[in-house]
Amino acid sequence: MFKISQQDQNNSSTTESNKTALKKTPLYNEHVKLKGQIVEFGGWLMPVQYTNVIDEHTTIRTKVGLFDTCHMGEFFISGEDAFKLIQIIGTNDIARLEDGKSMYHIWCYENGTTIDDSFVYKFKDNNYMIVVNASTIQKDFDWLKFQATKNNLAVELVDASDDTGKIDIQGPFAEKTLQKLTKLDLTSLKRFYFVSTQLITVANDGSIENKESNDYEEGNGEIDCIISRSGYTGEDGFELYFAAEKAPLVWNLLLVAGKEFGIKPCGLGARDTLRLEACYSLYGHEIDESITPVEGGLGWAVKENKECKDNKGNKIDFVGKQILAEQKKNGPKRIIAALEMIDKSVPRNSYEIFDEDKTKKIGYVTSGTFCPTLKRSVAMGLIDSAYSKVENIVSIKIRDNFYRANVVKRPFYEFCSGKK
Amino acid sequence: MDNPDDRKYTKEHEWVKVENKEGMNATATVGITFHAQELLTDIVFVELPKAGKKVEQFKQLAVVESVKSVSDVFSPVSGEVTAANNELTSNPELINKDPYNAGWIAKLKIEDNAKLNNELNNLMSAEQYGEYLKTAAH
Protein backbone atom coordinates (compact mmCIF):
# COMPACT_ATOMS: atom_id res chain seq x y z
CA MET A 1 0.00 0.00 0.00
CA PHE A 2 1.06 3.61 0.30
CA LYS A 3 0.79 4.56 -3.24
CA ILE A 4 -1.22 7.29 -1.54
CA SER A 5 -2.87 9.46 -4.13
CA GLN A 6 -3.43 12.79 -2.48
CA GLN A 7 -6.85 14.14 -3.24
CA ASP A 8 -5.95 17.74 -3.74
CA GLN A 9 -3.35 18.22 -6.43
CA ASN A 10 -2.20 21.37 -4.69
CA ASN A 11 -1.74 19.35 -1.60
CA SER A 12 0.86 16.72 -2.35
CA SER A 13 3.45 15.75 0.21
CA THR A 14 6.84 17.24 -0.28
CA THR A 15 10.36 16.00 0.10
CA GLU A 16 13.10 17.89 1.91
CA SER A 17 14.80 18.75 -1.37
CA ASN A 18 12.10 20.97 -2.83
CA LYS A 19 11.00 22.61 0.39
CA THR A 20 13.36 25.53 -0.13
CA ALA A 21 11.44 26.84 -3.12
CA LEU A 22 8.20 26.92 -1.17
CA LYS A 23 6.98 29.77 0.99
CA LYS A 24 6.53 29.54 4.74
CA THR A 25 4.05 31.53 6.76
CA PRO A 26 5.24 33.34 9.92
CA LEU A 27 3.61 30.48 11.85
CA TYR A 28 5.67 27.72 10.23
CA ASN A 29 7.82 27.14 13.32
CA GLU A 30 4.70 26.92 15.51
CA HIS A 31 3.34 24.16 13.24
CA VAL A 32 6.59 22.24 13.51
CA LYS A 33 6.57 22.66 17.31
CA LEU A 34 2.99 21.37 17.41
CA LYS A 35 4.00 18.38 15.24
CA GLY A 36 1.80 19.42 12.35
CA GLN A 37 2.14 17.30 9.24
CA ILE A 38 3.43 19.74 6.63
CA VAL A 39 2.40 19.53 2.97
CA GLU A 40 2.64 21.78 -0.04
CA PHE A 41 -0.45 23.83 -0.79
CA GLY A 42 -0.46 26.33 -3.66
CA GLY A 43 3.26 27.02 -3.29
CA TRP A 44 3.14 27.17 0.51
CA LEU A 45 4.24 24.79 3.23
CA MET A 46 1.13 24.36 5.34
CA PRO A 47 -0.04 21.97 8.08
CA VAL A 48 -2.58 19.49 6.69
CA GLN A 49 -3.28 18.06 10.14
CA TYR A 50 -1.84 17.94 13.68
CA THR A 51 -3.78 14.99 15.14
CA ASN A 52 -6.19 13.79 12.48
CA VAL A 53 -8.78 15.39 10.24
CA ILE A 54 -11.85 14.00 12.01
CA ASP A 55 -10.64 15.14 15.43
CA GLU A 56 -9.86 18.65 14.19
CA HIS A 57 -13.11 18.86 12.21
CA THR A 58 -15.12 17.86 15.30
CA THR A 59 -13.21 20.39 17.41
CA ILE A 60 -14.44 23.21 15.16
CA ARG A 61 -18.03 21.95 15.21
CA THR A 62 -18.18 21.49 18.99
CA LYS A 63 -15.44 23.60 20.60
CA VAL A 64 -12.96 26.03 19.07
CA GLY A 65 -9.96 25.78 16.77
CA LEU A 66 -7.35 27.88 15.00
CA PHE A 67 -6.28 27.96 11.36
CA ASP A 68 -3.15 29.57 9.99
CA THR A 69 -4.40 31.58 7.01
CA CYS A 70 -1.36 33.87 6.74
CA HIS A 71 -0.79 32.55 3.23
CA MET A 72 -3.87 34.33 1.92
CA GLY A 73 -3.53 37.61 0.05
CA GLU A 74 -4.53 41.08 1.26
CA PHE A 75 -4.72 44.08 -1.07
CA PHE A 76 -5.45 47.62 0.08
CA ILE A 77 -7.26 49.79 -2.46
CA SER A 78 -7.79 53.52 -2.05
CA GLY A 79 -8.01 56.67 -4.17
CA GLU A 80 -10.93 58.51 -5.75
CA ASP A 81 -11.76 55.67 -8.16
CA ALA A 82 -11.29 52.76 -5.74
CA PHE A 83 -15.02 52.00 -5.64
CA LYS A 84 -15.28 52.11 -9.44
CA LEU A 85 -12.40 49.68 -9.88
CA ILE A 86 -13.79 47.14 -7.42
CA GLN A 87 -17.25 47.44 -8.95
CA ILE A 88 -15.82 46.81 -12.44
CA ILE A 89 -13.68 43.77 -11.60
CA GLY A 90 -16.24 41.73 -9.68
CA THR A 91 -19.76 40.39 -9.86
CA ASN A 92 -21.30 41.56 -6.60
CA ASP A 93 -22.71 45.03 -5.93
CA ILE A 94 -20.21 46.87 -3.77
CA ALA A 95 -22.55 49.90 -3.69
CA ARG A 96 -24.60 47.90 -1.18
CA LEU A 97 -21.62 47.46 1.12
CA GLU A 98 -21.67 49.59 4.27
CA ASP A 99 -18.63 50.79 6.24
CA GLY A 100 -17.26 48.08 8.51
CA LYS A 101 -18.75 45.21 6.53
CA SER A 102 -17.39 42.67 4.07
CA MET A 103 -18.90 41.11 0.96
CA TYR A 104 -18.17 38.08 -1.21
CA HIS A 105 -16.95 39.25 -4.62
CA ILE A 106 -16.08 37.06 -7.62
CA TRP A 107 -13.69 38.22 -10.33
CA CYS A 108 -14.27 37.05 -13.89
CA TYR A 109 -12.77 37.31 -17.36
CA GLU A 110 -14.84 38.74 -20.23
CA ASN A 111 -15.99 35.19 -21.09
CA GLY A 112 -17.40 34.81 -17.58
CA THR A 113 -14.95 32.22 -16.27
CA THR A 114 -13.43 32.86 -12.88
CA ILE A 115 -10.16 34.60 -12.03
CA ASP A 116 -10.64 34.27 -8.28
CA ASP A 117 -13.14 34.71 -5.48
CA SER A 118 -12.51 37.24 -2.72
CA PHE A 119 -13.92 39.16 0.20
CA VAL A 120 -14.09 42.96 -0.02
CA TYR A 121 -13.84 44.82 3.30
CA LYS A 122 -15.03 48.42 3.26
CA PHE A 123 -13.36 50.77 5.77
CA LYS A 124 -15.05 53.87 4.33
CA ASP A 125 -15.79 55.33 0.89
CA ASN A 126 -12.97 54.57 -1.55
CA ASN A 127 -11.03 52.71 1.11
CA TYR A 128 -11.05 48.93 0.96
CA MET A 129 -9.18 45.74 1.71
CA ILE A 130 -9.64 42.74 -0.59
CA VAL A 131 -8.74 39.26 0.64
CA VAL A 132 -7.86 36.74 -2.08
CA ASN A 133 -6.66 33.15 -2.38
CA ALA A 134 -2.99 32.42 -1.75
CA SER A 135 -2.19 30.73 -5.05
CA THR A 136 -3.67 33.59 -7.10
CA ILE A 137 -2.12 36.61 -5.36
CA GLN A 138 0.18 37.62 -8.24
CA LYS A 139 -2.42 36.95 -10.94
CA ASP A 140 -5.03 38.95 -9.05
CA PHE A 141 -2.79 41.91 -8.32
CA ASP A 142 -1.68 42.07 -11.96
CA TRP A 143 -5.35 42.01 -12.99
CA LEU A 144 -6.16 44.91 -10.66
CA LYS A 145 -3.31 46.96 -12.13
CA PHE A 146 -4.36 46.04 -15.67
CA GLN A 147 -7.99 47.06 -15.09
CA ALA A 148 -6.97 50.28 -13.32
CA THR A 149 -4.79 51.26 -16.27
CA LYS A 150 -7.25 50.14 -18.93
CA ASN A 151 -10.06 52.17 -17.37
CA ASN A 152 -7.88 55.18 -16.47
CA LEU A 153 -8.79 54.95 -12.82
CA ALA A 154 -7.08 56.95 -10.08
CA VAL A 155 -6.34 54.34 -7.43
CA GLU A 156 -3.60 53.37 -5.08
CA LEU A 157 -3.02 49.61 -4.98
CA VAL A 158 -0.97 47.97 -2.25
CA ASP A 159 -0.24 44.27 -2.08
CA ALA A 160 0.20 43.80 1.68
CA SER A 161 0.06 39.99 1.56
CA ASP A 162 3.59 39.40 2.85
CA ASP A 163 3.25 41.95 5.65
CA THR A 164 -0.15 40.78 6.84
CA GLY A 165 -0.72 37.92 9.26
CA LYS A 166 -4.09 36.17 9.36
CA ILE A 167 -5.51 33.63 11.80
CA ASP A 168 -9.04 32.23 11.72
CA ILE A 169 -10.55 31.26 15.06
CA GLN A 170 -13.68 29.18 14.50
CA GLY A 171 -16.18 27.20 16.51
CA PRO A 172 -18.96 27.71 19.09
CA PHE A 173 -16.40 28.86 21.70
CA ALA A 174 -14.53 31.22 19.37
CA GLU A 175 -16.34 34.25 20.80
CA LYS A 176 -15.62 33.38 24.43
CA THR A 177 -11.97 32.70 23.59
CA LEU A 178 -11.37 35.87 21.62
CA GLN A 179 -13.29 37.99 24.13
CA LYS A 180 -10.44 37.46 26.60
CA LEU A 181 -8.11 39.30 24.24
CA THR A 182 -10.21 42.32 23.33
CA LYS A 183 -12.06 45.16 25.10
CA LEU A 184 -14.55 45.19 22.22
CA ASP A 185 -17.90 43.58 23.09
CA LEU A 186 -17.89 40.76 20.56
CA THR A 187 -21.57 39.98 21.07
CA SER A 188 -22.28 43.27 19.27
CA LEU A 189 -20.25 42.23 16.21
CA LYS A 190 -22.59 40.53 13.72
CA ARG A 191 -21.64 38.16 10.92
CA PHE A 192 -19.68 39.78 8.07
CA TYR A 193 -19.01 42.92 10.11
CA PHE A 194 -15.49 43.89 11.19
CA VAL A 195 -13.72 46.37 13.45
CA SER A 196 -10.20 47.78 13.36
CA THR A 197 -9.12 47.47 16.97
CA GLN A 198 -6.37 46.14 19.22
CA LEU A 199 -5.78 42.78 20.82
CA ILE A 200 -4.60 42.98 24.39
CA THR A 201 -1.79 40.68 25.36
CA VAL A 202 -3.02 40.39 28.94
CA ALA A 203 -6.51 39.01 29.14
CA ASN A 204 -9.44 40.80 30.78
CA ASP A 205 -9.73 38.12 33.41
CA GLY A 206 -5.98 38.02 33.95
CA SER A 207 -5.72 34.44 32.82
CA ILE A 208 -3.11 35.14 30.21
CA GLU A 209 -0.92 36.56 32.95
CA ASN A 210 -0.26 32.99 33.97
CA LYS A 211 2.21 32.84 31.15
CA GLU A 212 2.50 29.30 30.01
CA SER A 213 4.84 30.14 27.23
CA ASN A 214 7.76 32.49 26.77
CA ASP A 215 6.14 33.66 23.59
CA TYR A 216 4.42 36.44 25.50
CA GLU A 217 7.59 38.16 26.61
CA GLU A 218 7.28 40.64 23.80
CA GLY A 219 3.66 41.19 24.82
CA ASN A 220 2.22 43.47 27.51
CA GLY A 221 1.16 45.83 24.80
CA GLU A 222 -1.50 46.03 22.22
CA ILE A 223 -1.57 44.55 18.78
CA ASP A 224 -3.37 46.38 15.98
CA CYS A 225 -5.87 43.95 14.58
CA ILE A 226 -8.88 43.75 12.31
CA ILE A 227 -11.48 41.46 13.86
CA SER A 228 -13.99 40.19 11.33
CA ARG A 229 -16.87 37.91 12.27
CA SER A 230 -16.61 35.49 9.39
CA GLY A 231 -14.92 32.29 8.29
CA TYR A 232 -14.86 29.33 5.98
CA THR A 233 -16.16 26.52 8.16
CA GLY A 234 -19.95 26.88 8.41
CA GLU A 235 -19.46 27.67 12.09
CA ASP A 236 -19.42 30.92 14.06
CA GLY A 237 -16.00 32.51 14.33
CA PHE A 238 -13.62 35.30 13.46
CA GLU A 239 -10.90 36.12 10.98
CA LEU A 240 -8.10 38.21 12.44
CA TYR A 241 -5.69 40.40 10.44
CA PHE A 242 -2.55 41.93 11.96
CA ALA A 243 1.13 42.61 11.24
CA ALA A 244 2.80 39.42 10.03
CA GLU A 245 5.52 39.48 12.70
CA LYS A 246 2.85 39.35 15.43
CA ALA A 247 1.47 36.06 14.15
CA PRO A 248 3.27 33.72 16.59
CA LEU A 249 2.26 35.93 19.51
CA VAL A 250 -1.42 36.08 18.48
CA TRP A 251 -1.42 32.32 17.77
CA ASN A 252 -0.08 31.47 21.23
CA LEU A 253 -2.27 34.00 23.03
CA LEU A 254 -5.31 32.37 21.44
CA LEU A 255 -4.13 28.86 22.28
CA VAL A 256 -3.80 29.84 25.94
CA ALA A 257 -7.06 31.82 26.01
CA GLY A 258 -8.97 28.89 24.49
CA LYS A 259 -7.41 26.20 26.60
CA GLU A 260 -10.39 25.93 28.97
CA PHE A 261 -12.67 25.39 25.96
CA GLY A 262 -10.53 22.66 24.42
CA ILE A 263 -8.97 24.76 21.66
CA LYS A 264 -6.80 22.98 19.08
CA PRO A 265 -4.78 24.03 16.07
CA CYS A 266 -6.44 22.70 12.91
CA GLY A 267 -4.97 21.96 9.51
CA LEU A 268 -5.99 22.34 5.89
CA GLY A 269 -7.52 18.84 5.91
CA ALA A 270 -10.24 19.83 8.36
CA ARG A 271 -10.60 23.22 6.68
CA ASP A 272 -11.49 21.40 3.48
CA THR A 273 -14.01 18.97 5.01
CA LEU A 274 -15.64 21.80 7.00
CA ARG A 275 -16.09 24.05 3.98
CA LEU A 276 -17.33 21.15 1.90
CA GLU A 277 -20.03 20.30 4.46
CA ALA A 278 -21.09 23.95 4.31
CA CYS A 279 -20.96 23.83 0.46
CA TYR A 280 -18.52 26.74 0.23
CA SER A 281 -16.72 26.84 -3.11
CA LEU A 282 -12.97 26.38 -3.27
CA TYR A 283 -11.19 28.20 -6.07
CA GLY A 284 -9.59 25.62 -8.36
CA HIS A 285 -12.45 23.19 -7.75
CA GLU A 286 -16.05 24.51 -7.95
CA ILE A 287 -14.90 27.65 -9.78
CA ASP A 288 -11.78 28.11 -11.88
CA GLU A 289 -10.56 29.58 -15.13
CA SER A 290 -12.94 27.31 -17.07
CA ILE A 291 -16.03 27.62 -14.84
CA THR A 292 -18.27 30.67 -14.42
CA PRO A 293 -19.76 31.69 -11.05
CA VAL A 294 -23.26 30.92 -12.37
CA GLU A 295 -22.16 27.40 -13.29
CA GLY A 296 -20.52 27.27 -9.88
CA GLY A 297 -23.92 27.78 -8.22
CA LEU A 298 -22.95 31.29 -7.14
CA GLY A 299 -25.50 33.20 -9.19
CA TRP A 300 -26.68 34.88 -5.98
CA ALA A 301 -23.36 36.78 -5.93
CA VAL A 302 -23.75 37.96 -9.54
CA LYS A 303 -25.66 41.26 -9.63
CA GLU A 304 -26.17 41.78 -13.33
CA ASN A 305 -28.36 44.85 -12.77
CA LYS A 306 -25.88 46.75 -10.63
CA GLU A 307 -24.64 50.17 -11.66
CA CYS A 308 -21.06 50.36 -12.82
CA LYS A 309 -19.33 53.50 -14.13
CA ASP A 310 -16.11 54.42 -15.89
CA ASN A 311 -13.84 57.31 -14.88
CA LYS A 312 -16.02 59.82 -16.75
CA GLY A 313 -19.17 58.63 -15.05
CA ASN A 314 -20.54 56.74 -18.07
CA LYS A 315 -22.36 53.49 -17.42
CA ILE A 316 -20.35 50.40 -18.35
CA ASP A 317 -20.59 46.67 -17.77
CA PHE A 318 -18.55 44.88 -15.15
CA VAL A 319 -16.13 42.36 -16.60
CA GLY A 320 -17.96 39.20 -17.70
CA LYS A 321 -21.45 40.67 -17.30
CA GLN A 322 -22.84 39.75 -20.75
CA ILE A 323 -22.27 36.00 -20.42
CA LEU A 324 -23.15 35.83 -16.73
CA ALA A 325 -26.44 37.71 -17.25
CA GLU A 326 -27.29 35.39 -20.14
CA GLN A 327 -26.50 32.29 -18.05
CA LYS A 328 -28.62 33.56 -15.17
CA LYS A 329 -31.54 34.30 -17.49
CA ASN A 330 -31.53 31.06 -19.48
CA GLY A 331 -29.89 28.79 -16.97
CA PRO A 332 -26.34 27.48 -17.40
CA LYS A 333 -25.85 24.25 -19.39
CA ARG A 334 -23.96 22.75 -16.47
CA ILE A 335 -24.03 23.53 -12.79
CA ILE A 336 -22.47 22.53 -9.49
CA ALA A 337 -24.75 20.05 -7.69
CA ALA A 338 -24.52 18.82 -4.12
CA LEU A 339 -24.33 15.02 -4.12
CA GLU A 340 -24.77 12.55 -1.31
CA MET A 341 -23.72 8.93 -1.76
CA ILE A 342 -26.46 6.29 -1.63
CA ASP A 343 -24.01 3.39 -2.06
CA LYS A 344 -21.05 3.20 0.27
CA SER A 345 -17.87 4.66 -1.17
CA VAL A 346 -15.96 7.95 -1.17
CA PRO A 347 -16.24 10.26 -4.18
CA ARG A 348 -13.08 12.24 -4.91
CA ASN A 349 -12.00 15.20 -6.99
CA SER A 350 -12.13 14.50 -10.79
CA TYR A 351 -14.06 11.19 -10.63
CA GLU A 352 -16.48 10.97 -13.56
CA ILE A 353 -20.25 11.32 -13.07
CA PHE A 354 -22.74 9.42 -15.24
CA ASP A 355 -26.52 9.33 -15.41
CA GLU A 356 -28.44 6.76 -13.36
CA ASP A 357 -28.24 4.21 -16.20
CA LYS A 358 -24.46 4.63 -16.35
CA THR A 359 -24.69 5.18 -20.10
CA LYS A 360 -23.97 8.89 -20.44
CA LYS A 361 -21.18 10.89 -18.89
CA ILE A 362 -22.74 14.05 -17.41
CA GLY A 363 -19.88 15.65 -15.49
CA TYR A 364 -17.21 15.23 -12.85
CA VAL A 365 -16.62 15.58 -9.13
CA THR A 366 -15.08 18.94 -8.16
CA SER A 367 -14.70 18.12 -4.43
CA GLY A 368 -15.60 15.01 -2.50
CA THR A 369 -14.88 13.43 0.83
CA PHE A 370 -16.21 11.53 3.79
CA CYS A 371 -17.84 14.11 6.05
CA PRO A 372 -16.99 13.73 9.70
CA THR A 373 -20.04 15.58 11.10
CA LEU A 374 -22.55 13.92 8.79
CA LYS A 375 -20.78 10.53 8.80
CA ARG A 376 -21.63 10.22 5.12
CA SER A 377 -19.74 10.64 1.89
CA VAL A 378 -20.65 13.76 -0.05
CA ALA A 379 -19.43 15.63 -3.10
CA MET A 380 -19.94 18.66 -5.22
CA GLY A 381 -19.96 17.91 -8.92
CA LEU A 382 -20.18 19.96 -12.10
CA ILE A 383 -22.93 18.23 -14.07
CA ASP A 384 -25.27 18.72 -17.02
CA SER A 385 -28.06 20.96 -15.63
CA ALA A 386 -30.73 18.54 -16.91
CA TYR A 387 -29.63 16.12 -14.19
CA SER A 388 -29.26 18.65 -11.37
CA LYS A 389 -32.76 18.49 -9.91
CA VAL A 390 -32.89 17.62 -6.22
CA GLU A 391 -33.58 13.90 -5.65
CA ASN A 392 -32.27 12.97 -9.10
CA ILE A 393 -29.98 9.93 -8.98
CA VAL A 394 -26.58 9.92 -10.67
CA SER A 395 -23.78 7.33 -10.82
CA ILE A 396 -20.23 8.15 -9.83
CA LYS A 397 -17.46 6.05 -11.34
CA ILE A 398 -15.08 5.12 -8.55
CA ARG A 399 -12.15 3.05 -9.80
CA ASP A 400 -13.90 0.39 -11.94
CA ASN A 401 -17.38 0.49 -10.43
CA PHE A 402 -20.39 2.77 -10.40
CA TYR A 403 -21.88 3.99 -7.13
CA ARG A 404 -25.21 5.80 -6.87
CA ALA A 405 -25.57 9.28 -5.41
CA ASN A 406 -28.53 11.60 -4.86
CA VAL A 407 -28.65 15.24 -5.83
CA VAL A 408 -29.52 17.01 -2.56
CA LYS A 409 -30.28 20.54 -1.40
CA ARG A 410 -27.29 22.73 -0.58
CA PRO A 411 -25.69 22.91 1.93
CA PHE A 412 -24.97 19.57 3.57
CA TYR A 413 -24.46 21.35 6.89
CA GLU A 414 -26.53 24.41 7.81
CA PHE A 415 -24.58 27.37 9.18
CA CYS A 416 -24.08 27.10 12.92
CA SER A 417 -26.68 24.35 13.20
CA GLY A 418 -24.87 22.83 16.15
CA LYS A 419 -25.14 26.09 18.10
CA LYS A 420 -27.13 25.90 21.29
CA MET B 1 3.40 -1.47 19.32
CA ASP B 2 4.83 -4.94 18.69
CA ASN B 3 4.15 -6.57 15.37
CA PRO B 4 3.06 -10.18 16.03
CA ASP B 5 5.64 -12.78 15.03
CA ASP B 6 3.11 -15.34 13.78
CA ARG B 7 2.98 -13.67 10.36
CA LYS B 8 5.00 -12.02 7.58
CA TYR B 9 5.22 -8.42 6.41
CA THR B 10 5.65 -6.50 3.14
CA LYS B 11 7.59 -3.31 2.49
CA GLU B 12 4.27 -1.71 1.63
CA HIS B 13 3.02 -2.38 5.19
CA GLU B 14 0.67 -5.31 4.69
CA TRP B 15 0.74 -8.45 6.82
CA VAL B 16 -0.16 -12.05 5.96
CA LYS B 17 -0.86 -14.87 8.37
CA VAL B 18 -0.72 -18.32 6.77
CA GLU B 19 -2.51 -21.27 8.38
CA ASN B 20 -2.30 -24.93 7.52
CA LYS B 21 0.77 -24.08 5.46
CA GLU B 22 1.86 -27.67 4.80
CA GLY B 23 -1.62 -29.10 4.23
CA MET B 24 -3.92 -29.24 1.26
CA ASN B 25 -6.04 -26.31 2.42
CA ALA B 26 -3.56 -23.58 3.21
CA THR B 27 -5.22 -20.23 3.90
CA ALA B 28 -3.85 -16.73 4.23
CA THR B 29 -5.36 -13.83 6.17
CA VAL B 30 -4.31 -10.36 5.02
CA GLY B 31 -4.40 -6.94 6.66
CA ILE B 32 -2.40 -3.76 7.06
CA THR B 33 0.10 -3.06 9.83
CA PHE B 34 -0.14 -0.89 12.91
CA HIS B 35 2.35 1.48 11.26
CA ALA B 36 0.15 1.67 8.14
CA GLN B 37 -3.00 2.63 10.02
CA GLU B 38 -1.00 5.16 12.03
CA LEU B 39 0.17 6.85 8.82
CA LEU B 40 -3.32 6.79 7.32
CA THR B 41 -4.97 8.06 10.52
CA ASP B 42 -8.77 7.91 10.49
CA ILE B 43 -9.86 5.17 8.09
CA VAL B 44 -13.35 5.95 6.79
CA PHE B 45 -13.87 3.45 3.96
CA VAL B 46 -12.56 0.07 2.81
CA GLU B 47 -13.26 -1.27 -0.66
CA LEU B 48 -13.25 -5.02 -0.05
CA PRO B 49 -12.47 -7.68 -2.69
CA LYS B 50 -15.26 -10.01 -3.77
CA ALA B 51 -15.07 -13.72 -3.00
CA GLY B 52 -13.69 -15.56 -6.00
CA LYS B 53 -11.31 -12.79 -7.00
CA LYS B 54 -7.90 -14.22 -7.92
CA VAL B 55 -4.95 -12.10 -7.02
CA GLU B 56 -1.20 -12.39 -7.65
CA GLN B 57 1.44 -11.44 -5.11
CA PHE B 58 1.93 -7.65 -4.77
CA LYS B 59 -1.11 -6.91 -6.96
CA GLN B 60 -4.03 -4.81 -5.76
CA LEU B 61 -6.37 -6.58 -3.37
CA ALA B 62 -8.36 -3.82 -1.67
CA VAL B 63 -8.52 -0.05 -1.18
CA VAL B 64 -8.32 1.78 2.15
CA GLU B 65 -9.40 5.40 2.40
CA SER B 66 -8.91 8.03 5.07
CA VAL B 67 -10.60 11.43 4.92
CA LYS B 68 -7.79 12.78 2.76
CA SER B 69 -6.20 9.78 1.07
CA VAL B 70 -6.83 6.71 -1.08
CA SER B 71 -4.38 3.80 -0.74
CA ASP B 72 -4.17 0.46 -2.49
CA VAL B 73 -3.67 -2.64 -0.39
CA PHE B 74 -1.45 -5.12 -2.24
CA SER B 75 -1.74 -8.83 -1.60
CA PRO B 76 1.34 -10.25 0.16
CA VAL B 77 0.77 -13.65 -1.51
CA SER B 78 -1.10 -15.10 -4.51
CA GLY B 79 -4.44 -16.82 -3.97
CA GLU B 80 -8.20 -16.72 -4.40
CA VAL B 81 -10.34 -14.58 -2.11
CA THR B 82 -12.67 -16.75 -0.03
CA ALA B 83 -13.91 -14.08 2.38
CA ALA B 84 -13.69 -10.38 3.08
CA ASN B 85 -14.16 -8.76 6.47
CA ASN B 86 -17.66 -7.32 6.03
CA GLU B 87 -17.48 -5.78 9.50
CA LEU B 88 -15.27 -3.13 7.91
CA THR B 89 -18.17 -1.91 5.79
CA SER B 90 -19.92 -0.44 8.79
CA ASN B 91 -16.87 -0.11 11.07
CA PRO B 92 -13.82 0.76 8.96
CA GLU B 93 -12.15 2.16 12.10
CA LEU B 94 -11.63 -1.45 13.26
CA ILE B 95 -8.43 -1.26 11.24
CA ASN B 96 -7.26 1.65 13.40
CA LYS B 97 -8.33 -0.03 16.61
CA ASP B 98 -7.13 -3.57 15.99
CA PRO B 99 -5.14 -3.89 12.76
CA TYR B 100 -3.80 -7.40 13.52
CA ASN B 101 -7.03 -9.11 14.59
CA ALA B 102 -10.53 -7.65 14.17
CA GLY B 103 -9.21 -5.35 11.42
CA TRP B 104 -8.24 -8.13 8.99
CA ILE B 105 -9.23 -7.40 5.39
CA ALA B 106 -9.46 -10.65 3.39
CA LYS B 107 -8.85 -14.39 3.53
CA LEU B 108 -7.25 -16.20 0.60
CA LYS B 109 -7.24 -19.84 -0.43
CA ILE B 110 -3.77 -20.92 -1.49
CA GLU B 111 -3.68 -23.02 -4.62
CA ASP B 112 0.01 -23.73 -4.98
CA ASN B 113 1.99 -24.47 -1.81
CA ALA B 114 5.38 -24.44 -3.56
CA LYS B 115 4.64 -21.02 -5.00
CA LEU B 116 3.47 -19.86 -1.57
CA ASN B 117 6.78 -20.87 -0.01
CA ASN B 118 8.69 -18.91 -2.64
CA GLU B 119 6.48 -15.91 -2.11
CA LEU B 120 6.88 -16.01 1.65
CA ASN B 121 10.63 -15.81 1.12
CA ASN B 122 10.06 -12.38 -0.44
CA LEU B 123 8.49 -11.12 2.80
CA MET B 124 9.88 -9.99 6.15
CA SER B 125 9.57 -11.52 9.59
CA ALA B 126 8.22 -9.36 12.43
CA GLU B 127 11.78 -8.69 13.54
CA GLN B 128 12.94 -7.76 10.04
CA TYR B 129 9.91 -5.54 9.56
CA GLY B 130 10.64 -3.79 12.86
CA GLU B 131 14.20 -3.13 11.66
CA TYR B 132 12.87 -1.96 8.28
CA LEU B 133 10.67 0.64 10.00
CA LYS B 134 13.67 1.92 11.94
CA THR B 135 15.97 2.27 8.95
CA ALA B 136 14.02 4.98 7.19
CA ALA B 137 10.79 6.89 7.21
CA HIS B 138 8.25 4.97 5.18
CATH class identity of chain B: Mainly Beta
pLDDT < 50 runs, ≥5 residues of chain A: 3-17, 209-219
Tell me the number of strands of chain A: 21
What is the tally of helical segments of chain B?
5
Tell me, what's the shape of chain A? globular
Distance between the termini of chain A: 43 Å
SSE blueprint:
The complex is a heterodimer of chains A (420) and B (138).
Chain A: E1 5-6, E2 23-24, H1 28-33, E3 37-41, E4 44-49, H2 53-62, E5 65-68, E6 73-78, H3 82-89, E7 101-108, E8 114-124, E9 127-132, H4 137-150, E10 156-159, E11 164-170, H5 174-179, E12 194-200, E13 222-228, E14 237-243, H6 247-257, E15 264-265, H7 268-277, H8 321-330, E16 334-341, E17 352-355, E18 361-371, E19 376-384, E20 393-398, E21 401-408
Parallel strand pairs in A: 2-4, 5-15
Antiparallel strand pairs in A: 3-4, 5-11, 6-9, 6-10, 7-8, 8-9, 11-14, 12-13, 13-14, 16-19, 16-21, 17-18, 17-20, 18-19, 20-21
Helix pairs in contact in A: 2-7
Chain B: E1 8-9, E2 14-19, E3 27-32, H1 34-40, E4 43-47, E5 54-55, E6 60-66, E7 69-74, E8 79-84, H2 87-90, H3 94-97, E9 106-109, H4 113-121, H5 126-135
Antiparallel strand pairs in B: 1-2, 2-3, 3-9, 4-6, 5-8, 6-7, 8-9
Account of the 3D structure:
The complex is a heterodimer of chains A (420) and B (138). Chain A has 420 residues and is α+β, with helices and mostly antiparallel strands. Chain A contains eight helices and 21 strands. Chain B is an alpha+beta fold. Chain B has a single domain, classed as OB fold (Dihydrolipoamide Acetyltransferase, E2P). Chain B has helices spanning 34-40, 87-90, 94-97, 113-121, 126-135; strands at residues 8-9, 14-19, 27-32, 43-47, 54-55, 60-66, 69-74, 79-84, 106-109. The A-B interface holds A 1-8, 11, 48-49, 52-55, 57, 269, 272-273, 344-346, 348, 369-370, 372, 377, 399 and B 12-14, 32, 36, 39, 41-42, 44-45, 47, 63-74, 89, 138. Strand 1 of chain A pairs antiparallel with strand 7 (69-74) of chain B, so a sheet runs across the interface.
